[in-house]
Amino acid sequence: MNIPMLDLKAEYALLKDEIEPAVCAALAACQYIGGPNVKAFEAEAAAYAGVKHGISCASGTDALLIALRAIGLGPGDEVITTPFTFVATASTVVMCGAKPVFVDIDPRSFNLDLNQVEAAITAKTKAIVPVHLFGQPVQLAPLKALCEKHNLKLIEDAAQSFGADYAGRKSGAYGDIGCTSFYPSKNLSAFGDGGLIITDDDALAAELRVLASHGSRVRYHHHVLGYNSRLDEIQAVILRAKLKRLDGFNNRRIAIADFYNRQLAGAVETPFADGHGRHVYHQYTILSDRRDAIQKALTDAGIGCAVYYPVPLHQQEMFAATHGDVKLPVTERTARRCLSLPISPMLQDAQIEAICGVIRNALK
Ligand SMILES: *Cc1c(COP(=O)(O)O)cnc(C)c1O
After folding, report:
1. Residues of the domain holding 269
2. Angle at 149 between CA 145 and CA 155, to 5 degrees
3. 199, 215, 243 - which closes a domain
4. Residue 294 and residue 251: Cα distance in Å, rounded?
């Protein structure tokens, strides 16, 4: 058997006839930076998300960094976020000179434990950065209420949840700023790196553009320390084609998750959808005390699987000096028991049955 964790080849075969001529046309047009496809994609992505402004940039990491800079984050400030995420959620806070404060997660949704957030707020707290982990929307209403009460900004890390929705808003559109990534494994993905920042706030949008463009409002006049962070024309062509298919792909992910749930019921702890909004299953992540045995059986059978994330951020070496004594038991236990299974939209039902057969066998 050979079932990859992420089947980009099958997706490419599906999109080839549309994407290849469009990429060639962009190559011939020679407007490689700030070209018409970048502008069109920003407008189309903002319209999709239901916000006024979409500012493209070079990666999801840059989207977060630029968003944090735009709210004025700096030395002495704190940002509350989750330890169970990709490192960029917190490393960008450190890049601004500020300190990430990790709050433990909910054992079932894997998202921030909403009951523990307020106790972590101090006079230094400037923002809350929830992550819609694995595509499941965080309940944002209680977080927004906390932000209003304590005068904080809400920045959504929607890198894994583009196309999810919550309370009638698309993921990333509910907070002050939303950040997403087009890394090849994400739900909306490029053929390389890319990112997008979305907001309804005109002043923040202007600041985000200045920061992404060398801190310049007027060409060759630099007002603040900025970045060279752009989406390129070729990636914009690809993203425009894929944005049209995003809802279809996400629906297929939801159907796959449903099928897995039925096949795996009783064998492992299947993912818990908390019912708040639409979970778009960036990952399908199970929990089991026998995680390592399942992982080995799948690997031996030629089936991709992965542990997201084996080391929670508060236990990463890079945070040892600042967070060495932090204990977050739910996160630590989850990191020992979680396993993500293949969930590309191209996955076939017969493949899912085969994967579940291997898992059930491993647990016999
Ligand atoms: C992928 C990811 C990022 C970073 O995006 P890049 O485009 O790889 O820089 C940030 N946060 C989360 C939660 C991610 O999954």
Report:
1. 246-362
2. 60
3. 243
4. 27
CA distance 260 to 60: 29
Question: The CATH number of the domain where 115 resides is what?
Answer: 3.40.640.10
Is the CB of 345 inside a 6 Å radius of any atom of ligand 1? Answer: no
**Residue 140 CA to ligand 1 centre (angstroms):** 20
* Cβ–ligand 1 contact at 61 (below 6 Å): yes
pTM summary value: 0.98
Helix (H, G, I), strand (E, B) or coil at 355: helix
Measured CA to CA, the distance from residue 157 to residue 66 in angstroms comes to: 12
Q: Is residue 29 part of a domain?
A: yes
- DSSP assignment of 209-249 equals HHHHBTTEEETTEE-S---B----HHHHHHHHHHHTTHHHH
- Atom 6 in ligand 1: which residue has the minimum CA distance? 60
195 with 339, same domain: the answer is no
**pLDDT at 275 exceeding the cut of 90:** no
Structural domain count of the chain: 2
Residues constituting the chain: 364
Cβ of residue 156 lying under 6 Å from some atom of ligand 1: no
pLDDT in tens, 127-172: 999 999 999 999 999 999 999 999 999 999 999 999 999 999 999 9
282: CA distance to ligand 1 center in Å? 12
